[in-house]
Amino acid sequence: MSAAFSRAVDLSSLTRRTAAPTGAATPPVNRAEDELGGADSALVGGYVIDATDATFEDVLQASTHVPIVVDLWATWCEPCKQLSPVLEKLVAEGHGSWVLVKVDVDANPGISQAFQVQSIPTVVALANGRPVSAFSGAQPESQIRLWLKDVIDQLREVLPGIKEAEAAAPEPEPEPEDPRLAAAQEATDRSDFAAAAAAYQAILDEEVGNTVAVNTEAAFGLAWSELLGRAATVGADAISRSDANPSDVELAARAADLEVASGTAAAAFARLVTAVSHNAEPERSAARAHLLALFALFPADDPAAMAARRALAAALY
């Protein structure tokens, strides 16, 4: 949210509380659920309420304890119907580290005017009675998660209710194991790499088009199954033969497979970089392609892979 918008939003018209006299002791901050207990609609699971022009002062007071995320919506708004369930799902996951307040802008023109709503859905985060961040329009769940994380991280040391809620939150339940992945792993454990590769490929075929975590795990599993299958067919003398002829790309590829499977990836990467530097086309491209395939077995921030990528760039250019 722009700084100009933050300054322009004036919520004072929604506050009816009388300021404490100068020098008077500041009353203790109540928990958000206590402050919101008087709202027209009861808390849903403790974290979601419907607020009105008449009850919004309670929302502002509660924002001195935890962040309040205001969902400005209307019954006729189709994007609102997409966004609201996502927010309700995420607030349940937050276990009280923030509270979702839903406002029907048609029924509550005072709130709508105070926030200068130009389009809906509009979502505004409040802290200490002031807007601190906002976005408009239906957004993907991944983007909303990032936005919420940024809000919570910035306010964790400012609003006491965040740490209180995080400390009291239950441990997250482990994700149930995908039986397809378990079957593929069992095949790997018994060294049936062909069966493991087929199982991982079947998962990818089923999940085509889905950007889910199981897809990533299956892709890694397939790559490793294929690598282990190749390494199982390599003779024990592969490394010594490649050492004796470092420019032979086929020997280097076999030896590198064996080295990665044995846990010495850095040596495998160096071997293929050497093959790249010692050859012209098309052997150079073949060595490079095999090296890139091995890189795919490791996270992007793997130190050995990162160092080898730099060495490959130097060998090529």
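The above is record 1. Record 2 follows with the same two-line structure.
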Amino acid sequence: MVKFNFSFSKTGYMKYISHLDLMRLFTRAFRRAGFAIKMTQGFSPHPKFSINRALKLGLESQDELAAVSLRESLDTQDFQERLQKQMPEGITIKQVYEEEKSKPRD
């Protein structure tokens, strides 16, 4: 499992999209980009994806943080390019970095 943290901006008409719709937008974009998203376990599985904070409707932001867990390893540049191609105008993927894996304790 690989966890990618990334920052994005939400500007223009996208400032009128709600937090729940933004979550759905990213989930569909991950699927369209062909990413193997890690799913939660249980009765109703959901993608392991989170946005750090929910913006109020009508506010623009230049630096929102999000994280997604994938089942396959990718280059950060490839992840950014493939995801950006699936985003509508107003959502820009700015920076992507892979989360460091912690070593198990003895």
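Helices lie at 19-32, 76-85.
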